[in-house]
Design a protein that fits this description.
The complex is a heterodimer. In chain A, the strands form four sheets. In chain A, strands 1, 3, 4, 7, 8, 9, 10, 11, 15 and 16 form a ten-stranded mixed beta sheet that branches. In chain A, strands 2-14 form a two-stranded antiparallel sheet. Chain A has a two-stranded antiparallel sheet with strand order 5-6. Chain A is elongated and about 105 Å long. Chain A has two domains: about 1-45 and about 280-410, no CATH class; about 55-265, no CATH class. Chain A has helices spanning about 1-10, 15-45, 60-70, 80-90, 115-120, 150-155, 200-205, 225-230, 250-255, 270-320, 325-370, 380-410, and strands spanning about 55-60, 80, 95-105, 110-115, 125, 130, 130-135, 145, 160, 180-185, 195-200, 210, 215, 235, 240-245, 265. Chain A starts with a helix and ends in a 6-residue tail after the last helix. Chain A is built from twelve helices and 16 strands. Chain B is built from eight helices and ten strands. Chain B has helices spanning about 45-55, 75-85, 100-110, 115-120, 125-135, 150-160, 180-195, 220-225; strands at about 5-15, 20-30, 35-40, 60-65, 70, 85-90, 170, 200-205, 215-220, 225. In chain B, helix 7 (about 180-195) links the parallel strand 7 (about 170) and strand 8. Chain B starts with a strand and ends with a strand. The chains are: A alpha+beta, B alpha/beta. The interface of A and B includes residues 11, 322 and 326 of A.
């Protein structure tokens, strides 16, 4: 009976209550979507590379090495020589190694030189491999394999010819040695999607007539001649390393870091990702903080609305009291209302969240490479909801206490 | 002693020591089955007296006994129950919960009183029956309280005050928001039902012309003295 009357009372104030519910559910949705984005970004981020035990490169901070070798952000400070690389590869602890050579670009996308092992050894999202969607991996010297994002954004298909530019924002192009697309990779949600992949030999080949970052004037070796040359690289930018036994990782890392002939750094990808996330994660924490403040603001708004409706409901409370309701019952009715509003808001916010996420998911994935998981609510969400209901009970105590005093003091008087 | 439904003895009340409004009720008694009109202008302390009788307010000294129990000695919870069991209240206006339907409004006191709900076998039926006797439309159960006219609302309030046969009905200027014709119709119907129920009626008004319907006419100034 009380519940029924409380509900019809809410229904009678449909507009006010409805607006309150909408306001609260939007703020809850904001909070939940920030939280979802945050966790999804974190998983996407830390899942970028897996099953690689060490990444080596020229002496640099672990974050920097991680950024340029895996995320292709920024530049390598230096290269490491092929000889040093071979020294590392020949260590008995090493199971496999994939060299990476960076530095050139194509229409804003990074060009990465590597070998075919890369496709077998590079794993993401807990051990998923890169698969080829169309065509084949590079067979010819001038074959390129495109990440899904590159092919999609540039509209390239198999056999599309392309020219690699020297450096990242340079106007000098290796136009004397055109490439063609031999294969396109499946979407991975990692930086591989935005990478143009060629063989190490190709990187070497396009730089035959180049010296210290500039083309040697007047020198132009014909392609036929280049094909016959020994195109073993002299330098590489970085390398991914897998070890035979995890127990030897730290020994190997120390050995590389202390390698006397060249300044090299070996990093543990997992640790570096965590370190990197601590930097990037600040923004997410800020967003989270803001959305918590928004929730508080709407709770205060709800209290304000309850307060302003109190004066009009003073009459109603006098009726309840006259019927024999105790002041506690009157207070209980108000709290019931607050609980009902918050539960309704939670339901609406969940619906809104899943609706908007399922619409926005492909867009976020496409633009930011973050795969937001539209899944069932986590235990943590439930915990947040319970806290919210508790908080709304707490804030509704203020108008309820006021109502309590009204109902005690008003007595027979009906305030108009 | 059982003859008195209301018995007030040496009751003193004021809101606070500084308050200019202090009242003293030396002795006030109403017998069971009586229909009493309490006359008084606004601000004379009528509403305060009614609030004391209903147990909304507690006297500073003296005793108030309603239907045999001294209510100022009861805990606030028992006092609320006692009110629900014994008293049907009709306000001047705004008697009903506007969002609830008519039947829910009428049966609301039964929810709070075991005694009164024990007197009613079928809540809906007896609510409808009261409505019928109060000449409310047959399809009254289709209405929301807010869609009724003021006169109809006051009659629904009578039905609510009478459901489950409480021994005392208190009406605070129930006709003041009605025009003269509606007043007469309302009073006819209310008296008829109160007589049927054999309830006691204490009605407050400032309209002396209503006196002829009542067993007794009391001026508020005879009941209480103001101590300024």
């Amino acid at each position: 009976m009380l519940l029924k009357l409380s509900l019809s009372s809410l229904y009678a104030r449909l507009v006010t209550v409805g607006m309150t519910v909408i306001a609260i559910s939007f703020s809850l949705m904001l909070y939940m979507s920030v939280e979802k984005l945050r966790t999804s970004a974190y998983t996407s981020f830390t899942d970028t590379i897996s099953q690689t035990d060490l990444i080596i490169g020229a002496r640099a901070s672990s974050v920097q090495l991680m950024l340029y070798s895996v995320f292709r952000i920024g530049n390598a400070t230096n290269n490491i020589t092929w000889e040093s690389y071979l020294d590392v590869v020949n260590k008995e602890e090493v199971d496999w190694a994939v060299p990476i050579s960076l530095g050139d670009s194509h229409k804003g996308f990074r060009v990465m030189g590597t070998n075919k092992d890369f496709f077998a050894r590079y794993k993401y999202r807990g051990g998923q491999s890169i698969n080829i969607d169309k065509g084949y991996l590079f067979e010819d010297l001038y074959d390129v394999v495109l990440g899904a994002g590159v092919a999609e954004k540039l509209g390239y298909d198999i056999d599309t010819p392309l020219i690699v530019a020297h450096g990242l924002q340079s106007f000098s192009e290796h136009d004397d040695q055109p490439f063609r697309v031999s294969g396109i990779l499946e979407k991975t949600g990692t930086p591989v999607d935005n990478t143009v992949i060629v063989s190490l030999a190709a990187i070497e080949a396009i730089h035959v007539d180049w010296s210290t970052g500039a083309k040697i004037p007047g020198q132009e070796t014909p392609i036929e001649e280049i094909r016959k040359m020994d195109l073993t690289p002299k330098n590489i930018t970085a390398a991914l390393i897998g070890v035979k036994s995890k127990l030897t990782i730290f020994n190997l890392q120390r050995w590389i870091n202390e390698y006397p002939e060249e300044a090299m750094t070996a990093i543990l990808p997992g640790a570096a990702l965590q370190e990197l996330w601590r930097v990037v994660g600040v923004v997410e924490n800020l967003l989270l903080g803001i959305s918590i403040v928004v929730i508080f603001t709407t709770l205060i708004g709800m209290t304000a609305i309850m307060f302003s409706s109190l004066s009009e409901r003073r009459r109603e409370m006098a009726i309840w009291r006259a019927m024999g309701a105790s002041p506690r019952t009157v207070v209980g009715l108000l709290m019931l209302e607050a609980i009902f509003i918050s539960v309704l808001s939670i339901l609406l916010s969940v619906i809104l969240l899943f609706f908007s996420l399922s619409i926005l998911q492909p867009w976020i994935d496409y633009n930011y490479g973050i795969l937001v998981n539209v899944e069932m609510l986590s235990l943590r969400d439930m915990y947040v909801f319970m806290t919210f209901i508790f908080a709304s009970i707490l804030v509704s105590l203020l108008p309820a206490i006021r109502a309590y005093w009204f109902s005690i003091n008003d007595g027979m008087t009906i305030k108009i | 002693m059982d003859e008195n439904i209301i018995k007030i003895d040496s009751v003193r009340f004021y809101w606070s020591k500084k308050s200019r409004f202090k009242i003293f009720v030396p002795n006030f008694e109403i017998n069971k089955g009586e229909k009493v009109l309490l006359l008084g202008e606004s601000g004379s302390g009528k509403t305060t007296l009614l609030s004391l009788i209903c147990g909304f307010l507690n006297p500073l000294s003296g005793s108030i006994s309603i239907n045999g129990s001294t209510i100022n000695k009861l805990s606030s919870k028992t006092k609320d129950e006692h009110r629900a069991d014994n008293i049907g209240i009709i306000f001047q206006q705004f008697n009903l919960l506007p969002y609830a339907n008519v039947i829910d409004n009428i049966v609301l006191p039964l929810y709070f009183s075991k005694v009164r709900s024990a007197n009613v076998t079928n809540q809906r039926e007896s609510a409808l029956n009261l409505c019928k006797q109060l000449r409310l439309p047959d399809d009254i159960d289709q209405y929301k309280a807010s869609s009724l006219s003021v006169g109809q609302q006051q009659r629904v309030a009578v039905a609510r005050a009478l459901i489950g046969n409480p021994s005392l009905v208190i009406a605070d200027e129930p006709t003041s928001s009605l025009d003269t014709d509606a007043q007469q119709i309302f009073l006819d119907l209310m008296f008829e039902q109160i007589s049927n129920n054999k309830s006691t009626l204490l009605m407050v008004s400032h309209d002396r012309s209503l006196a002829k319907r009542f067993d007794r006419l009391i001026d508020i100034n005879e009941v209480l003295t103001r101590e300024d």
